[in-house]
UniProtKB/TrEMBL annotation:
It comes from the Eukaryota. Mn(2+) binds at K293, D317. GO terms for biological process: cell wall organization; cellulose biosynthetic process. It is found in: Golgi apparatus membrane. Residues 1-17 have a biased composition (Polar residues). Residues 1-24 are annotated as: Disordered. One of its GO terms (cellular component) is Golgi membrane. This is Cellulose synthase-like protein G3. It is a multi-pass membrane protein. The chain crosses the membrane at residues 33-52, 58-84, 529-550, 570-592, 613-634, 654-676, 688-709, 721-744. Belongs to the glycosyltransferase 2 family. Plant cellulose synthase-like G subfamily.
Length: 745
């Protein structure tokens, strides 16, 4: 909205010095001055609050009041940390525009750099192969010199079913690509295209028939769980599937690298060349760590290095379909600009999703994380890497801009020129060698070269470390979303995803490369703080859990812990609450959000605070102390019909028992009871002034908890709260209340 109108025009030449038409412009957002003034006022209010706590702490006469004050002091210090670090995003947010149409005036198409696309998938039953195929087709059909595109699919599930789907896709692609280009189609994922376009030409109808028959074949094979002989059409295909011997399991198998399309040979039905399409399932063995997605990406980095070694790499999650065929040209506006290029590690596009319900109940949109904060980062040294939809310079994986970190073999150097066909014996031999699981042992992969290991949030970690090395990045947020991904549609999936993120981020936060120490030293205070905010994301659990339980338990015990409405300190509390919420609301709406979605956003922040972040922190510290281990739990992209219907109606999906639902439900129960108790007090004419803040907090929580009460009390569908969860939560609430009676006695 506001942001979009300030883009500037193509006439203001920026980077090309006026000699050529401009490729891109950058402008500060209009609200920067307001942000700075407001920050000054708000900072003073925070200091006043801390002073108030210190004073209360100093004069507290009992152990209980001392402990309660201390708990609020700690909580408010954490809130203050998040507030301070949020200001880094508000100091210099910028908005950029690109002019891809000008690229053609400056460069010949034949001079465009080659592009290697990496697509990761890990489990055919959670990530349906037909969707992965759609993602691949959507980028194979990019408006970009086709023979320069190579798509590498990493299959961490090591599944013949996925390979089968891609064999079928390579045949379908020979029809699909010319169809898209000839008709200048925008949605180049067939699924999206057929969903949107109901009035079809006869050509479209016949393409649709080919697509549907491929889809049916792929889905049938998936249902059967194996590729039957009748589905294998050539000796070459049979040879490939023979690799799935009896000893082949997903955790233990040799590397499988299969060239499905070869740009130098294969042609589409119109006679034009096809892109390269290569299936890669790296070697796995239970004896060696595989480092989850980062490991998969590094294997692709090496395999692609010796096969095509394109200078530009696009990384995609299996569900990130292209939504705009012009996207690589937009990225090229920066990657081909001699002024920005030498320092530029990557151009990040925002993560945008399809199929989010109207009020976005699980806050899948993540406006703050994926859009608002990123614009703030962009005005400093550039956005963090978001894991998908990102164009890298290959060189950025090999050391800082000024000093190259050399790989073990010359074939992997970023400037190596591949002079043999990708299917030649020698190329395939090296590719298999670098995809083996022992290749990385005692090497710099994962520490100084490639995607970085040691965190379940490999995206955040890798981008951060690149910036510490001196690389810059750019956020590219065009009006038409460049990619569209899938969102979790059950609460359990959403919370588990958030738990994984919070663990991964803590892993970086407490490593020797912590943004708070190493980061501040390498990239400066503002960038360091900006990264630190995410690293310690899970610490939100401290204030949120405290405010979800403590004021309520005190209220139940008739202990009033906040300033009375008539006291001046009350206004401080009111200002801090309204100021923070108000500014958040403003940011959200100015970034094009709706009021309804903003409400869900704040609600889900509270929900995460008492579930994902609490459990994520606990799991992290157990691992830190060497007591347990955790893995990368892939988010399901499979759509259950009933669940998806409820999701569409905006109904919360519980359905299964989860410890994370227990804490949530316990909080909902305690808030409801304490609010009711407060009401009783008010009707009895007791002390509304002293009660007010506590009543307000529990009332606010009650309104937010509405979906939980529904799920416990009167829903009948499969997504209601399991009885077991409700019982355990009630017991937990009872225990907390009993304990509080002893404390507040
Ligand atoms: O061992 C693994 C685990 C996952 N993946 C792939 O990683 C991607 C992301 O997994 P998903 O379950 O969809 O996670 P999300 O939480 O939705 O993803 C976000 O968070 C991840 C880090 O936790 C980033 O890697 C992603 O890019 C980012 O979109 C998918 O394509 C998976 O196939 C692998 O290749 N190997
Ligand atoms: Mn995902």
């Amino acid at each position: 909205m506001g942001a979009r109108q300030q883009g500037g025009s193509a006439i203001q030449a920026t980077s090309t010095g006026g000699r050529h038409p401009s490729l891109h412009t950058v402008k500060p957002l209009g609200r920067t001055l307001f942000n700075r003034v407001f920050a000054t006022i708000y900072a003073h209010s925070i200091l006043a609050l801390l002073f108030y706590h210190a004073k209360t702490l100093f004069y507290s006469t009992t152990l209980v009041s001392f402990s309660v004050t201390l708990a609020f002091l700690i909580s408010d210090l954490v809130l203050a940390f998040f507030w301070v670090s949020t200001q880094t995003f508000r100091m210099f947010p910028v908005y950029r525009k690109q002019f891809p149409e000008n690229l053609k005036k400056i460069m010949e198409r034949s001079d465009f750099p080659a592009l290697d696309v990496f697509i990761c998938t890990a489990d055919p039953y959670k990530e349906p192969p037909i969707s992965v195929v759609n993602t691949a087709l959507s980028v194979m059909a990019y408006d970009y010199p086709t023979e320069k595109i190579s798509v590498y699919v990493s299959d961490d599930g090591g599944s013949a079913l996925t390979l089968f789907a891609f064999m079928e896709a390579s045949k379908f692609a020979t029809h699909w690509l010319p169809f898209c280009k000839k008709n200048n189609i925008l949605e180049r994922s067939p699924e999206a295209y057929f969903e949107l376009n109901h009035t079809c030409t006869s050509e479209a109808v016949s393409i649709k028939i080919i697509y549907e028959s491929m889809k049916v074949k792929v889905e049938r094979v998936l249902e059967r769980g194996k590729v039957d002989d009748e589905n294998i059409t050539s000796g070459q295909e049979r040879e490939a599937f023979n690799k799935w011997a009896d000893s082949f399991t997903r955790q233990d198998h040799p590397a499988v690298i299969q060239v499905l399309l070869d740009a130098s040979k294969d042609k589409d039905i119109a006679g034009y060349s096809m892109p390269n399409l290569i299936y890669v399932s790296r070697e796995k063995s239970k004896a060696s760590p595989h480092h989850f997605k980062a490991g998969a990406l590094n294997a692709l980095l090496r395999v692609s290095g010796c096969m095509t070694n394109a200078p530009i790499i696009l990384t995609l999650d299996c569900d990130s379909c292209s939504n705009d065929p012009e996207t690589p040209l937009r990225a090229m506006c920066y990657l081909s600009d001699p002024e920005t290029r030498p320092q530029l590690a990557y151009v990040q596009f925002p993560q945008i999703f399809r199929g989010i319900n109207k009020s976005d109940i699980y806050n899948a949109e993540f406006k703050r994380l994926y859009q608002i904060n990123v614009m703030g980062f962009d005005g400093l040294s550039g956005p963090n890497y978001l894991g998908t939809g990102c164009f890298f310079q290959r060189r950025a994986f090999y050391g800082s801009p000024s000093s190259l970190a050399s790989p073990e073999i010359p074939e992997l150097a970023p400037d190596y020129i591949v002079d043999k066909p990708i299917q030649s014996q020698s190329v395939l031999a090296i590719a298999h060698q670098v995809a083996s699981c022992n290749y990385e042992s005692r090497s710099n992969w994962g520490s100084k070269i490639g995607f970085r290991y040691g965190s379940l949030s490999e995206d955040y970690h890798t981008g951060f470390r690149m910036q510490c090395e001196g690389w810059k990045s750019i956020f590219c947020d065009p009006d038409r979303p460049a990619f569209l991904g899938d969102v979790p549609i059950t609460l359990n999936d959403a919370l588990n995803q958030q738990k994984r993120w919070s663990i991964g981020l803590l892993e970086v936060g407490f490593s020797k490369y912590s943004p708070a120490t190493f980061g501040v030293k390498s990239i400066g205070l503002l960038m360091g703080l900006a990264y630190a905010q995410s690293a310690f994301w899970a610490m939100w659990s401290i204030p949120i859990t405290t405010y979800a339980f403590l004021p309520q338990l005190a209220l139940l015990n008739k202990v009033y812990i906040f300033p009375k409405v008539s006291e001046p300190w009350f206004f401080l509390y009111a200002f801090l609450f309204l100021g923070a919420y108000g500014q958040d609301f403003l940011d959200f709406i100015l970034a094009g959000g709706s009021i309804q979605r903003w409400w869900s956003d704040q609600r889900f922040w509270i929900i995460r605070g008492i579930s994902s972040y609490v459990f994520g922190s606990v799991e992290f510290f157990l691992k830190f102390l060497g007591i347990s281990a955790f893995g990368f739990n892939v988010t399901s992209k499979v759509v259950d019909h009933e669940q998806s219907k409820r999701y569409g109606q905006g109904i919360f999906e519980f359905g299964v028992h989860s410890p994370m639902f227990v804490t949530l439900t316990a909080a909902a129960i305690i808030n409801l009871i304490s609010f009711s108790q407060g009401l009783v007090e008010v009707f009895r004419g007791n002390n509304l002034e002293g009660l007010f803040v506590q009543m307000f907090i529990s009332g606010f929580a009650v309104v937010n908890s509405w979906p939980i009460y529904e799920a416990i009390a009167w829903r009948k569908d499969k997504g209601k709260m399991p009885i077991k969860t409700s019982i355990i939560a009630t017991l937990l609430a009872g225990t907390l209340y009993t304990a509080s009676c002893f404390v507040f006695l």
